[in-house]
Amino acid sequence: MESTAFSEQAQVQPRRLWRNWSRSQSCQPRAFWVPTDEHELSNQLTRDKRPVRVVGAGHSFSPLVPTDNIILNMACFRGLVSVDHGRQIVTVKAGTPLSQLTTWLFEHGLALHNQGDIDTQTIAGAVSTGTHGTGITLGCLSEAVVGLRLVTAQGDILNCSEIENSALFRAAKVSLGSLGIFTELRLQVVPAYRLKEHVQLVPLSDLIEQIDSLKTQHRHVEFFAFPFADIAILKTLDFSSDAITALEDKSLSENAILRMACEASRWMPKLNPRIQKLVGRFVKDEQRVGYAHQIFPSPRNVRFNEMEYQVAAVDGPSCLEQIIQIMQSRKFNVFFPIEYRYVAGDQTPLSPFYGGDKASISVHQYYKQDYHPLFAAIEPIFHRYKGRPHWGKLHSLDSTQLRARYPEWDTFMSFRNLMDPDCRLLNPYSKRLLLG
């Protein structure tokens, strides 16, 4: 296929403000590139040698995108390219939002093996940052990738899989946009399936004692802990052949209650424990059944900032207890609960789940409140357990600290140096992460 003529006027948008979802990151780049296809992207990278950072849905909390140079928007790269029902493999364009992808898959009788509770991210953004759902036997989203196409900083177009450019493929799956720009991803999918969701309120102290056994009793188990009230919202998901139940949309009322609680806590910190205890009045013991793409997502309209670390699964409960102790002893003014999940290990060099099963622990702060004091107090606990941060969440580690936590750090860096020797695909933040 011949490349279309390059038109800078048509494909480059003028300087304007970019902000992420939580409003914690922003920049005003020199221009936005919006290529319409792979060859146009290749031409742009070949002709213009300025640094470029690719943006997905802007749902990362860490400063992976902000740059004074060029932001590359992949909005035109959306859609299913092919569906192989026999092998259960689909090829999807990199800028496709997860919500659209899962809907299209369902129309073909297919589904992702797992996903998180937010589905607004693009598939490329979610894969390249190690985004995940929950399940001790289920890996992060990058584990579903069986092949990809990327455009290098020099404009070359490469196919990568276990057969073609296999070593690069292994490194590229979780690469923060630093090895090249994904244009297509091939995903191993599964037949569409139903899940039964069970939500209940339980005493937090009891749940921490039981969680080690619960993680193997259910396909998915996660909970949201309110440390100032000693309660938690426990959610389990399991395969089901039961009839579909009415899937009532409670997001408007739930988000309204959450917003009011956060505002009340922000202005009246002394009431925070009492407000957390009121959660019990709004959480009912409920079950519902639906297809996976209907059950997994939980609309999030109340903005927040987040820090998340992965620690060895066996260390999860004790790490959580220490976090709770710090929050209680220092009386931090935070209403948002702590989120606790399990994720299966993998062998991708820069995956936070490399080498073994992990407990994933997330701490949140309402976006109108300063998250720095809370996160600074909690992060040393994660360091104590040699935790690895979620690449899309806030943390303070640099390349020296990260190198000590990733056994194949040097393997990855050899590919980074080879693929982008001039560091065109890095911004100041990713340079600190990867280069020091």
UniProtKB/TrEMBL annotation:
Q: Which PANTHER family match?
A: D-ARABINONO-1,4-LACTONE OXIDASE, L-GULONOLACTONE OXIDASE
Sorted alphabetically, which PROSITE patterns does this protein's record hold?
A: FAD_PCMH
Tell me the domain of life.
Bacteria
What the entry lists under SUPFAM superfamilies is as follows: FAD-binding/transporter-associated domain-like
Q: Which UniProt keywords apply?
A: FAD, Flavoprotein, Oxidoreductase
* Designated name of the protein: FAD-linked oxidoreductase
GO MF annotations, alphabetized: D-arabinono-1,4-lactone oxidase activity; FAD binding
Please report the stretch or stretches of sequence annotated as the FAD-binding PCMH-type domain: 25-192
Q: Per its UniProt record, what InterPro entries does this chain match?
A: ALO_C (IPR007173), FAD-bd_PCMH (IPR016166), FAD-bd_PCMH-like_sf (IPR036318), FAD-bd_PCMH_sub1 (IPR016167), FAD-bd_PCMH_sub2 (IPR016169), FAD_lactone_oxidase-like (IPR010031), Oxid_FAD_bind_N (IPR006094), Vanillyl_alc_oxidase_C-sub2 (IPR016171)
> Got a GO cellular component term for this one?
membrane
